[in-house]
Fold this protein.
Amino acid sequence: MRILVVEDDLEAQRYLVNGLKEAGHVVDDAADGETGLTLALSRPYDVAIIDRMLPKVDGLKVVADMREHANTTPVLFLSALSEVDDRVKGLKAGGDDYLTKPYAFVELLARIDALMRRRSPQSVKTRLQVGDLELDLLTRTAQRAGSAIDLQPREFRLLEYLMRHASQVVTRTMLLESVWEYHFDPQTNVIDVHISRLRAKIDKGFDTALLHTVRGAGYMIRAARAT
Amino acid sequence: MRAPDILRTQAYRIVLVYVAVFAVSVTALLAFTYWNTKRALDAQTDQIIEAEITGLSEQYQQLGLRGLAEVVVSRSAHGGSGLYLLANRFRQPIVGNLDAWPAKKEGPDNFVEFDYQRRVENALETRKARGRAFLLPGGFNLLVAQDVHERYLTERLFTTTLPWTVGLVLLLGLIGGALMSRNMLARLDSINRTSAEIIDGDLSRRVPVGASHDEFDALAENLNAMLDRIERLMKGVREVTDSVAHDLRTPLNRLRNRLEATLRHLDPGSDQAGEIEAAVAETDQLITTFNALLLIAEADAGVTRGEMVPIDLAPIAEDMAELYAPLAEEKGVSLSITPAGATMIDGNRSLISQALANLVDNAIKYTPSGGSVTVTALETPQGVELRVADSGPGIPPQERLRVVERFVRLEASRNSPGTGLGLSLVAAVARLHDARLLLEDNKPGLRAVIRFPRPAPRVR
């Protein structure tokens, strides 16, 4: 994937670029808003990662200008400004996601994955499938290997989000944001408990587990690898 | 300002007290004058009666009963205010201009006040009289009295006018007071309105200063000077918060980046990887604490006040109860939510959710297995409330104020995970919403209440 990184803190930029390259992405970088905007408008990118506070042209302005030029590249804002207010401003300016510094690199990767998949027209799907697990979005029912699984409404949304991002890491923060629509730090491992209850419903009694814990990052749902 | 508002003000209360004192004084003064005048008139009447009695008893001694009777008849015919009655020992009239001996008993000094009938222009009229009975040697009774009807009428006029006078004094006093306090209140009101706007977050407002350099202008100038200072301090705090946020987050970000980059190059199972992972976890804990502190500082500085919108507390309560239900179930604590009615307030959904999550989290953490936690959103006469009640050990009353301070953790909870910022954050969120965090005894357990003010349509 081609990724644009606009970040003025050079050390942070270096780690970001190196990390993304190691993860197999092609990365262009810019240290100020002006260069960033020029790059964003001149080349096609799959995702742009933009710091909110930039020299020359502010991050919000960069994205607003991109959108004005009909550039639809998904944008992930990075910012030391953590307030909900800032988040709302970022999203209103045309950003697609917002990550607060300091962030975990896996969180960033997971969000980039999620943003890139968003471009594919998956929303028209009425059925999601991972291995022998099927989710019918119309009847709101789930079944695995032909037997029905009884899910609470929230468990259904949790599973739906995981399955829409099948084979991608999904972090706890992303789950809280997408499934519960909240932006805050729960003090305890409250998301883990929801996941373990979901896991008990979909994986218990089956030979292969579909819902996996990714250490230090979050969760991933995927079919057993073909051997 | 409406009339009921004026009635509730201190200025008007002072006016009321003043008017009451004034009315009592006026009443006392009038009563004193009345009483003195009455006494002087009474004394005058009594003197006339005494003099007549002395004269008549002399007549009796010199001329005997027949002579006295003649004098009485002649004086009675005079038609003045003098009233006379000579009677036998059984008080049956002999001569005089009174038809009968008055039925009223005499006082200790033989004076008596009585009514009598008198023919005035062909009509009988009942009139007041005051007189003295006198027992003549030989067993005859003599009553000498004065007609005091005119005086009585004057007295009655006075006593009927007095309440009206007092009433008029009160009315005029109240009207005058209302006008006076209205003038004063208009100025106090402008100070109060400005203060309210400042409390609501607009620190740039200032109290209008008049040109008369009186006490009110001095007060306004002092308030404005104080506000300038507060605004400078707040701006300073905000700048510090912003730069701390930026200058500390950047190195924290680099630290975490470096640790993660190092971790990526290490063999996942190795000892070093374990150490680095532990360091990342420590960093994350540091970041959590840092974020919580910053959020408290921001909430206290009113930075986030801008996005207060009408929100319903009931769905938030339901969401948080739902979010924490599995955690409670895992611990064997029953978590229930009490349905509620109207629970709309002006607020910040995310911050309130965070605060409620902290309370529910705490409640579950400190409630032993088998206990219960109840989340309620309801409207009470005091305001709109979010309540989290548990059946845990509770917090001793003397500790309740302390636990909302930053980093304070009670002995009993030292060993459980947490930053000691949970309740401080709740308190800060409450302050931001002009709400109060109340920690009460749930008998047993703790009941934490966030009491929001009703979203009243503000008068500007």
